[in-house]
Design goal:
The complex is a heterodimer of chains A (732) and B (268). By secondary structure, chain A is α+β, with helices and mostly antiparallel strands. Helix content of chain A is 29%, strand content 25%. Classes of the chains: A alpha+beta (732), B alpha+beta (268). The interface between A and B is medium-sized, with 30 and 25 residues. The complex binds flavin-adenine dinucleotide. Flavin-adenine dinucleotide (FAD) binds next to strand 2, helix 2, helix 6, helix 7 and helix 8 of chain B.
């Protein structure tokens, strides 16, 4: 993005709030504007309203985020003013010279405090509660008939997404009055709609290009910064660019998770679970954006891989004076699997049963699909017990339990813990559609155009493989185009692990359509009936059924069609829409815990991740690999924290314990493929599974290691200090 | 992030560096840059002039000097790790250097910069204090030797005067060990513990347990009185002021110090 040649581009630097909660009394830009070619804009200069996409269903619309803070700032990082300069260095100097007169207000940082409504972020709304989902009514008899009920409170701690490439945006107004925005994004087409909507433009006047950009992890949904960059390019009539600094990214890019989870799980002494109640208190940060909505997904996935007859779910989302919460790798589902998997282990510990055995007694059986859970999800396909047995075999479960017993008998300082997590998650969660187009090129290759967007996921390879296989072309003859709204008619983009299952499926259907069109053309040329033309996929040649000698290759077909000006016939688009799919798996983590320091060492992680049919196993493994790293990072390392005044304490990588490869073992990924009936590929999503499975496996392993000491839970991240605290409390 | 504007000069010799520092009271030396540049980028530090001594290769050495080892101030952490003389006579320096940051940090960072920066989390600072090292500084009025015990005066503060350049560090030959508890492989010490036998006496130092590197005097005294490692280690947090920060709480640090001191003493 920074290398984009934009002649005469101006640089944007945001002046961000240093206070978590304050009224803005005055902004004095005199000193800043004394620097050469510096201009400073504030909310008073804006002619735009609240930043939209429309609020999520059920979320209070009065808590949206203005493009610039108006009169009041609500988190450290809220934008107060915009500095325009010729270069970044001048911008940094000028931003420092913008003098903001704050009138500090009491800050509310903890969601428990926020829920009391004593300090209000939006006094005009009258409450900090942005949304409630589920049912507030308690069924008194929910746990009736249960021998045993266990409960607990878990925190899915706040995480900073930390993409290697921070956000970047650039925009330029063309001579034709159209605006082009280059964005480090996940969703070019949706961005175009939101930009047009917010700026009051016809979408046709907006072109969004997503160049080859890196990691989003959910957090790179269009945000106020990108809208402001585009607005500025129009207002100033000059190209404008902005690239987030790392320090800025830590507080200004939305965070993820930040949920408090309370559970009660009841069942019989034989291990059968009968009832489950889950209550979520979601911290949405300073503005009610996607974060406020996420508990819906937690509630939907509450049942996990188990057939639980009775489930009650309730959630509240509250605003606090912290960085807004949005989607982050898993988005609502890791919370669900974290809590049900801890609940099952707590239940097993209470019964004195092996946690694997309790799981076996409660799995939704492999022959019960499609299956509707008591939390209202319709699971497409699965074999949960198969995944667990495969994982246990791969890890050598019985031998590990022997080693654990031995260490316990020896009262070794370093104890062994084995943790199981069986998970199911939802991808393409809101049943979206995706666009695909395939076109034969003059040299007999193909172009795939997809509305899905690759920001590192390798669609260029996967989607090319899908089309190549359908057309009988070598994969290198297929090129994938994405990310330019002028070239790709429509799209929804990449998030929620939905790309292959709808975008890949759309590409496949479009390839099939092109093949049918090619058969018609070949039939014309060979004076045969289209029904008699078949493809020999091994050599990429269309011929008359039963007589391979009468046929034509893609290359010859394309050149003949070009000469006849009929090549345009070999082009088809397809939009594919389908219900969500439910990837699943089983992870087993093995940890060593130093019972004196509390230090946890992850020794092994065996991961069975079943995402249906795999198109490219190497790419799928890459997704699993990164996904597990994020899951382990939540289990053992990361936690974004604030002091009581709402100042971030982990705003750099010195404090924020983002792990590196040096901290993590090599994963043992085990393939398993249970196709979904919901698309022609049989594919489900794979981008978030590793994350969703790994956190509870590691968490359970740490608690398992400490069971002999009377420890029943360890707060995440299960780092040395939290383990030490848990041990100390158990002793007390 | 972008630092505030500054001037830059490269010094060809220590004397030239001393003279350049005299030009401006906000001038600062630049060695490996791995502490100074991050703080400048966050604008916590705004020197008006950087005097780069990073290429003074004659200050990169490890030499035997009678019963002591002399280390040039510009010697990089990676060089400390590899040095055969240190391995033989003062192995805990290389052991500690190997635990600093990541490979990039170890190839740029210098021992002089490490102690001059005065970060209470500096591993080498603790080692020098534990060993009763001597630090040699040269300024406009010539050279002087500062004992480590008098060098560290506060967080990011030390006994050097504005125009003084640290040139050499002298340590005794000693057997010792360094244990460092970190949350992540490349982290700063949550707590670090050095233990060494210097002239027959066991000396113990602590990292990240107060505003400067600290000596665990009560542990040393207990040992001198014949206490077992475990009993002596119970005093590890006496007279310390461990901070509470995003890495750890004060009480956890105090606990870690006790565990690590015992383990270090058992290893010694
Ligand atoms: C990611 C990262 C991780 C790190 N982890 C650790 C760690 O785990 N443990 C640890 O101990 N350190 C760690 N460090 C710090 C590293 O060791 C630094 O390199 C070192 O502290 C400073 O040495 P330098 O040569 O880079 O000094 P510089 O950054 O160049 O200078 C630091 C300060 O010392 C002054 N100075 C430098 N040389 C002299 C001299 N000869 N005389 C007088 N003043 C001088 C400078 O003016 C400046 O004020 C880490 C650094 C980074 C970036």
């Amino acid at each position: 993005m920074e290398n984009l040649a934009l002649e005469g581009a101006l640089t944007v630097t945001f002046v961000r709030s240093l206070f978590a909660h304050a009224n803005i009394v005055d902004v004095d830009a005199t000193a800043a504007e004394a620097l050469p070619n510096v201009q400073v804009l504030t909310a008073a200069d804006m002619d735009l309203g609240v930043f939209g996409p429309p609020p999520f269903p059920g979320v209070n619309p009065g808590m949206g985020r203005p493009l610039l803070a108006v009169d009041r700032v609500r988190f450290v990082g809220d934008i107060i003013a915009i500095v325009i300069s010729d270069d970044r260095a001048t911008g940094a100097d000028a931003a420092e010279l913008v003098s903001v007169d704050y009138d500090p207000l009491p800050a509310v940082v903890s969601p428990y405090e926020a829920a009391k409504d004593e300090v209000l972020l939006f006094p005009e709304v009258g409450t900090n509660v942005a949304a409630r989902f589920g049912s507030p009514e308690h069924d008194e008899k929910l746990f009736g008939g249960c021998d045993v009920a266990v409960s607990g409170t878990l925190v899915s701690q706040r995480m900073a997404p930390c993409p290697l490439e921070p956000r970047s945006a650039a925009a330029e107004l063309g001579p034709d009055g159209r605006i082009t925005a280059w964005l480090s994004t996940q969703t070019p087409h949706q961005d175009r709609m939101v930009l047009a909507g917010t700026l009051g433009l016809d979408p046709a006047q907006v072109r969004v290009v997503g160049p080859d950009v890196g990691g989003g992890f959910g957090a790179k949904m269009l945000n106020v910064e990108e809208v402001l960059v585009v607005w500025l390019a129009r207002r100033l009539g000059r190209p404008v660019r902005w690239t987030e600094t790392r320090s800025e990214s830590m507080v200004a890019l939305p965070h993820g998770r930040a949920a408090r989870l309370e559970f009660t799980l009841g069942g019989m002494r034989d291990g059968k679970v009968l009832a489950y109640r889950l209550e979520v208190l979601q911290d949405c940060g300073a503005y009610a954006v996607l974060g406020a909505f996420l508990p819906n997904l937690t509630g939907l996935m509450a049942s996990g891989v188990y057939a639980i007859p009775r489930i009650e779910f309730e959630s509240r989302s509250v605003v606090t004076n912290t960085t807004p919460i949005s989607a982050f790798r898993g988005a609502g589902r890791p919370e669900a699997s974290q809590v049900i998997e801890r609940a099952i282990d707590t239940f097993a510990a209470e019964l004195g049963m092996d946690p694997a055995e309790v799981r076996r007694r409660n799995f939704i059986p492999a022959d019960a699909f499609p299956h509707t859970t008591a939390s209202h999800a319709v699971y497409d396909s699965g074999d949960y017990e198969g995944a667990l047995e495969l994982a246990l075999r791969s890890v050598g479960y019985d031998e590990l339990r022997d080693e654990q017993r031995h260490r316990r008998e020896q009262a070794a300082t370093t104890q062994l813990g084995i943790g199981i997590s069986c998970y199911v998650e939802i991808t393409n969660g809101i049943a979206e559609s995706e666009f695909g187009e395939v076109e034969i090129t003059p040299d007999g290759g193909a172009i795939v155009r997809t509305g899905s967007f690759s920001h590192g996921q390798g669609h260029e390879t996967t989607f090319a493989m899908i089309a190549a296989e359908r057309l009988g072309l070598p994969v290198e003859k297929v090129t994938v185009h994405k990310g330019d709204t002028d070239e790709i008619a429509k799209g929804t983009g990449t998030y929620g692990s939905k790309s292959t299952q709808i975008g890949g499926a759309a590409a496949r259907l479009a390839a099939d359509d092109v093949l049918e069109l090619a058969k018609q053309l070949v039939a014309d040329y060979l004076e045969a009936s289209p029904a008699d033309i078949v493809l020999d996929p091994a050599v990429g040649r269309l011929h008359v059924a039963g007589d391979p000698s009468i046929g034509i290759s893609w290359a010859d077909l394309a050149s003949r069609a070009s000469a006849d000006e009929r090549l345009a016939e070999l082009k088809a688009e397809h939009e594919f829409q389908a219900a969500p799919t439910f990837p699943f798996g089983a992870h087993v983590a093995v940890v060593e815990v130093d019972t004196e320091t509390g230090r946890v060492e992850l020794r092994r992680l065996v991961a069975v991740d079943d995402a249906g049919t795999l198109i490219n196993p190497l790419i799928a493994e890459g997704q699993v690999h990164g996904g597990i790293a994020t899951g382990v990072a939540q289990a053992l390392y990361e936690n974004f924290v604030y002091d009581d005044d709402g100042n971030p304490l982990t705003g750099t990588f010195v404090g924020y314990a983002f792990p590196s490869s040096a901290d993590l073992p090599s994963w043992e990924a085990v393939e398993m493929e249970t196709p979904t009936p919901l698309n022609a590929l049989g594919a489900k999503g794979i981008g978030e599974s590793g994350t969703i499975g790994a956190t509870p496996a590691v968490h359970n392993a740490v608690v398992d290691a400490l069971t002999p000491f009377g420890v029943r839970n360890v707060d995440l991240p299960a780092n040395g200090e939290n383990v030490w605290r848990a041990l100390r409390e158990a002793k007390a | 992030m972008i630092p505030a504007a500054f001037e830059y000069e490269r010094a060809g010799s220590v004397d030239e560096a001393v003279a350049l520092l005299g030009r401006d009271e906000d001038a600062k030396l630049l060695a490996g840059g791995h502490s100074l540049i991050p703080t400048m980028r966050l604008r916590f530090s705004r020197p008006s002039l950087l005097v780069d001594i990073g290429r003074l290769d004659d200050l990169r050495y490890v030499r035997e000097n009678r019963d002591r080892i002399a280390i040039g101030a510009l010697t990089r952490h990676a060089e400390l790790i590899r040095d055969p003389m240190l391995r033989e006579h003062c192995a805990l320096i290389g052991e500690a250097a190997a635990l600093i940051g990541d490979p990039q940090v170890r190839h740029r960072g210098t021992i002089g910069g490490s102690v001059a920066h005065g970060d209470p989390a500096s591993d080498l600072g603790t080692i020098l204090l534990t060993l009763d090292a001597e630090l040699v500084a040269r300024g406009p009025r010539g050279e002087r030797t500062i004992p480590a015990a008098a060098f560290f005066s506060g967080p990011f503060e030390n006994a050097l005067e504005h125009q003084e350049v640290l040139t050499e560090i002298r340590v005794p030959k000693a057997a010792g060990t360094y244990l460092k508890y970190v949350r992540r492989a490349h982290d700063w010490a949550t707590v670090g513990v050095a233990a060494a036998r210097v002239d027959g006496r066991v000396q113990v130092g602590l990292t990240s347990m107060g505003p400067t590197p600290l000596r665990a005097r009560s542990v040393e005294d207990a040992l001198a009185d014949g206490a077992s490692p475990a009993d002596a280690a119970a005093h590890a947090a006496d007279d310390t002021m461990p901070p509470t920060d995003a890495t750890a709480s004060s009480e956890y640090r105090a606990h870690l110090a006790q565990v690590l001191v015992r383990r270090a003493l058992e290893r010694l």
